[in-house]
Design a protein that fits this description.
- The protein is built from twelve helices and 18 strands.
- With about 375 residues, the chain is of the alpha/beta class.
- The chain folds into two domains: about 190 residues, Quinone Oxidoreductase, Chain A, domain 1 (Alpha-Beta Complex), CATH 3.90.180.10; about 140 residues, NAD(P)-binding Rossmann-like Domain (Rossmann fold), CATH 3.40.50.720.
- Strands 3, 5, 6, 9, 10, 17 and 18 form a seven-stranded mixed β-sheet that branches. Strands 13-12-11-14-15-16 form a six-stranded parallel β-sheet, with helices on both faces.
- β14, α9 and β15 form a beta-alpha-beta unit.
- α5 packs parallel to α6 and α6 runs parallel beside α7.
- Belongs to the zinc-containing alcohol dehydrogenase family.
């Protein structure tokens, strides 16, 4: 029996070249690995940044919001079996100080596990048939822009059988990050004020979470009229387009008027230094600003030192401070109860052949959250949900 199988995968060859659908080989699961038949995958700005800014090795199989069904397991896997539905998210080592303190997204090995393109120790999982030329996979220890993916028990969450798998995919990163920042990092309290800068998937997830948390004032800021309209529908009490203001100061004054004082919390999802500065400035005494998107390596932001004196703080956030296997079920329960309608953000694409187009649509801001159905038999069920 061969220790490899041929799969379809979407390959990123360089920042400039478009994604291509190709036939490649994937190794069979070893040790604690799981082989998952990918049903659907979400596309995240992290995928786009990794490719278009050259933040990964090439050629690379990207994808880190995969959902699917376990096909087979390695000889050391316990507690998981073929046939189970799973969501794949980021991976962590499980034993560094942060992992031991239930903060796995700040794992000492976060960079190497999720961005290096290899398994721990440098092993490659993908290759071209009859070729020694490397293909880097193991992106977030899954590379789910493919018909099959290899992952680990440490980065999967088992899903209930009745859940529509394609709709669950964005929970793995974008939605988890936005909602987790509100629930876990900021611990937003009732009757408080929060401003969210950037109303993509992450920002709108934060808006929904803030509504659930009972925030009195929820301010959404974006340049896109349609996304501001969506933010209002999902719970924003004020939606502002910066282009309507002559200066950042006037925008901040409008937010402060709405809230009665500075915000208790703010979130920047844009990765733009000037916007992060705005998010910081709009907070009042003891206000906390969460930075979700750091931009490319080397990007810097300037904060006036006097601005810190009222006890204000600026925090970087990865994956919403979430322990995925515990947090995702909580979000699903809120969704089932009608309190967290994240499915409204999703645009479905029908096949792996449409993934390169979905990737470009996301990059150009045409859709909020594209989800590509890899196993086409799930398309009708997903669209009926």
């Amino acid at each position: 029996m061969s220790n490899k199988q041929t799969i379809e995968a979407v390959i990123a060859h360089s920042p400039e070249q478009p994604l291509t659908v190709e036939r490649v080989e994937l190794t069979q699961p070893q040790g604690t690995e799981l082989l998952v038949r990918v049903v659907a995958v979400g596309i995240c700005h992290t995928d786009i940044m990794a490719k278009n800014k050259g933040l990964c090795q090439f050629p690379m199989v990207l994808g880190h919001e995969g959902v699917g069904i376990i096909e087979s397991v390695g000889e050391s896997v316990q507690g998981l079996a073929p046939g189970q539905k799973v969501l794949m998210s980021f991976d962590s080592c499980g034993h560094c100080p942060q992992c031991s303190d239930d903060k796995p997204s700040y794992c000492d090995d976060h960079g190497s596990l999720n961005f290096s393109g290899t398994r721990p120790g440098g092993r490659l999982t993908h290759n071209y048939p009859n070729s020694d030329a490397p293909i880097y996979g193991s992106f977030f220890q899954q590379s789910s822009f493919a018909s099959f993916a290899l992952c680990h028990p440490s980065n999967v969450t088992v899903l209930d059988d009745d859940l529509p798998l394609p709709l669950m995919a964005p929970l793995a990163c974008g939605i988890q990050t936005g909602a987790g920042t509100v629930f876990n990092t900021l611990d937003v309290k009732p009757d408080t004020a929060i401003a969210v800068f950037g109303c993509g998937c992450v920002g709108l997830s934060a808006v929904m979470a803030a509504k659930v948390a009972g925030a009195k004032h929820i301010v959404a800021v974006d340049l896109n009229h349609d996304r501001l309209a969506m933010a209002r529908e999902l719970g924003a009490t004020l939606a502002l387009n910066p282009s309507a203001f002559e200066s950042a100061q006037l925008l901040n004054e409008e937010i402060q008027r709405h809230c009665g004082r500075g915000c208790h919390y703010s979130i920047d999802t844009t990765g733009v230094p000037s916007v992060l500065r705005q998010a910081f400035d709009v907070c009042g005494p003891l206000g906390v600003t969460a930075m979700i998107a750091p931009g490319v390596p080397g990007t810097e932001v300037t904060i006036e030192m006097m601005g810190l004196l009222p006890g204000k703080s600026l925090r970087g956030v990865v994956q919403g401070d979430s322990v995925t296997a515990e947090f995702i079920p909580k979000l699903i329960e809120l969704w089932r109860a009608g309190q967290f309608p994240f499915d409204r953000l999703i645009q479905l694409y029908q096949s792996i052949e449409e993934l390169p187009q979905a990737f470009e649509d996301m990059r150009e801001g045409k859709v909020i959250k594209p989800v590509v159905i890899i196993d086409e038999q799930y398309f009708d069920a997903a669209t009926a949900s």
